[in-house]
Predict the 3D structure of the following.
Amino acid sequence: MRAEIERLVEEIKQSVGLLRRHLDVEKSTARLAELNKLAEDPNLWNDPQKAQKLMQERTSLEDSLSGIGKVEQELEDDIGMIELGEAEGDEGVVAEAEAGLKALKKEVARRELEALLSGEADGFDSYLEVHAGAGGTESQDWAQMLLRMYSRWAETHGFKVEVLEESDGEEAGIKSATIQVSGHNAYGWLKTEAGVHRLVRISPFDSNARRHTSFSSVQVFPVIDDSIKIDIKESDVRTDTMRSGGAGGQHVNKTESAVRLTHIPTGVAVVCQAGRSQHKNRAQAWDMLRARLYQMELKRREEKAAADQAAKTDIGWGHQIRSYVLQPYQMVKDLRTGVQTSDTSGVLGGDLDDFMAATLAQRAFGTTGGDIEDVD
C-alpha cells in the first residue's frame, strides 16, 4: 500500500480510537440496552417530559454508536478495495477507494467535533432569528437569503424547521424572522452562526447595476424544556398584541393573534405569530423569552470563563463574522477562522459544515484566527 494511503488509513484509525474512548463504547452500549428496555415500558409516556428526555438520550447514543460502526465498516471496505486493486493492477479501483478514504476522514473529523458538543445546551433544539440591518430593501432581501440558507442547511441534516415569526419587507425580503430548528445538537451547531453577516453584490434593485454592501444579523438561542428553571416576574414583562403578518391566510390578518413580549429589565423582546390563536402564540412567546434569557446566562458564564468567542452584535461595518462576495468575484470568507470558499452558490444553498466545524474547533481548543483580513 502506498505511503500516502497508509498515512490516511492510520489517521482515520487514530480518530476512530479517540471517538471510541470519548464515547466509552462498552458503557454506552450497556446504557443503550437499558434505555431500549425502558422505552418498552407502556407507562413511560405517563410522564411526557421524562419520556422525551429518555428518547432523546437513546437517539443520541444510537447515532453515536452506529456512526462509529459505519466508519469502521467503510474503512475496512476501502482497505479491501485498495488491496484488491493493487493486486490486479487496477488504478481506477485504487483511486475510487482512496477518494472514499478522504471522504471518510472528513466524516470522522465531523464526528470528532460533534463529540465536543457537550455544553449544557448543545443537544437542544434551537431558535434562530434573522434581522435585516440598515439599508432598506437591500438588507431585507439579504435577510431572506440568510433565512433560506439556514432552512436548507437544517433540512439537509434532517432537522425539522418551523417558522414562528416573519415580518415582510416593504418591497422585497424580510425585516425579521424566527424559526425553530428541531433535532439532536441543533443548538450546538447553529450557535456558531450568531453574528453579523455581510453581503457584497450587484444590486437587483439598482437600475444602474451598482455594487451594494448589505448587513443582516443572526441570533441563536436554545429551546429549553421544563427541566431548565428560568424565573421571570410577570410584572417585568410587557405584553403587546398585533395583527399577524406574512403567511397564514385571512384569519391571522383580521385578528390580533400575534404576541410580543418585552422583558423590561434586559430589553429582550420576542414575537410569535405562528399559531392561529393569541393563546397559543402567547405560550410560545413565553417559551422563547425563557430561552433567550437562558442563553444570556450561558453567555455570561462563557465570558466569565474567558471562553466566549461570540461576535459583536452591531449590524454594520467592523462587526461582521462572515463576508459573502458575489461581485466582481465569488468568495465567502469567515473572519473568525479564515475559512473561505469560492462556491458561493453552495454556501447560500446551505453548505455550511466547513464553517461551523472550524468555529467549533476554534472554541473547543481555544485557538484564534488572529487578524484575518476581510474581502472587498
About this structure: The longest strand covers residues 211-222. The first helix runs from residue 3 to 23.
